């Protein structure tokens, strides 16, 4: 399927690894010029080089920096000042017990997973409206739909973003600017393995056993492949997806047990 976005420009945050990288790759495959950001300069350079090799006809820019800081956002927007597509993404806060979290912990989580996406939307949405085309995809978490007790910081911050977008997305769609969220369940990423390692340490159970148990408990019997996630993101960014807005789409192998 031709998604009709060849030649468009995208800013994809936290895209050196995992789901962000998969989104950048899927967009590049559609002929989109991609600006990638990440904190780790070495991993980002390797990811960008791989995309340039795979898709020589598109421009791949890289901006090393922390997108959750004003300086990081300024650098990213300087490299890609008027994106047609914005993919918001940032690493999730650590798991734990809310009794141990300070105000600073909460502010850090809100900055990364709620306020940073809002700041980037604020910086880009008006030019999208002026051009009558814009696609914004927020990578959040299945925890928005079904909270995970040890991920309270993520539950709170990402749900706050979801509530904000619910209102804004109904205003921008008239101008062919959509805002949606993709809610990943267990995908085979460093994040999943890091959380599992923490659970293994706390429980004394080998991490391999925890991973296998988690796969077995999923209706699909496996973890998601990041490529699957990237393709879903690219579809939402397509020219023909303008009637989809304000939606929170689960990609979890059927783990959520509800009807709706």
From TrEMBL:
<dbReference type="InterPro" id="IPR036291">
    <property type="entry name" value="NAD(P)-bd_dom_sf"/>
</dbReference>
<comment type="similarity">
    <text>Belongs to the short-chain dehydrogenases/reductases (SDR) family.</text>
</comment>
<dbReference type="InterPro" id="IPR050259">
    <property type="entry name" value="SDR"/>
</dbReference>
<protein>
    <submittedName>
        <fullName>3-oxoacyl-[acyl-carrier protein] reductase</fullName>
    </submittedName>
</protein>
<dbReference type="Pfam" id="PF13561">
    <property type="entry name" value="adh_short_C2"/>
</dbReference>
<dbReference type="InterPro" id="IPR002347">
    <property type="entry name" value="SDR_fam"/>
</dbReference>
């Amino acid at each position: 399927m031709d998604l009709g976005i060849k030649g468009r420009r995208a800013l994809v945050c936290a895209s050196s690894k995992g789901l962000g990288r998969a989104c950048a790759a899927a967009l590049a495959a559609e002929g989109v010029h991609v600006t990638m950001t990440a904190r780790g300069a070495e991993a980002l350079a390797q990811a960008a080089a791989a995309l340039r090799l795979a898709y020589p006809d598109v421009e791949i820019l890289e901006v090393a920096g922390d997108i959750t800081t004003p300086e990081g956002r300024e650098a990213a927007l300087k490299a890609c000042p008027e994106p047609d597509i914005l993919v918001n993404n940032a690493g999730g806060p650590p798991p734990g017990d809310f009794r141990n979290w300070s105000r600073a912990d909460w502010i850090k989580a809100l900055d990364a997973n709620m306020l940073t996406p809002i700041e980037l939307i604020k910086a880009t949405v008006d030019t999208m409206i002026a051009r009558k085309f814009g696609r914004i995809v927020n990578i959040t978490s299945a925890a928005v739909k079904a909270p995970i007790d040890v991920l309270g910081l993520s539950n709170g911050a990402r749900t706050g973003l979801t509530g904000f977008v619910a209102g804004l997305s109904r205003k921008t769609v008239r101008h062919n600017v959509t805002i949606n969220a993709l809610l990943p369940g267990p995908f085979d990423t460093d994040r999943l393995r890091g959380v599992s390692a923490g659970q293994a340490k706390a429980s004394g159970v080998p991490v391999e056993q925890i991973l296998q148990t988690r796969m077995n408990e999923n209706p699909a019997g496996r973890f998601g492949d990041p490529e699957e996630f990237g393709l879903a993101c690219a579809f939402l960014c397509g020219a023909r997806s303008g009637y989809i807005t304000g939606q929170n789409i689960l990609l979890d192998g059927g783990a959520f047990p509800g009807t709706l």
